[in-house]
Design a protein that fits this description.
The chain is built from 1 helix and no strands. The chain has about 55 residues and is an all-alpha fold. The chain starts with a helix and ends in a 15-residue tail after the last helix.
């Protein structure tokens, strides 16, 4: 009974980690797209380079 519970626990941990990593990849892609939009859609007014963010 204990080995079965350990296998089920391992499967749940791996499933949760896989879901979390997939979610993190999607978040990273969204942040990259937002950064690229901000990089190319900068205005020419104000500041040194006129970006809409302050980095």
């Amino acid at each position: 009974m204990v080995p079965l519970l350990l296998v089920l626990l391992l499967a749940l941990i791996l499933f949760g980690a896989g879901f979390a990593l997939k979610a993190l990849w999607w978040i990273a892609v969204i942040v990259l797209v937002i950064w690229l939009v901000g990089f190319f859609a900068r205005s020419n007014t104000g500041g040194k380079r006129g970006r809409w963010y302050r980095w």
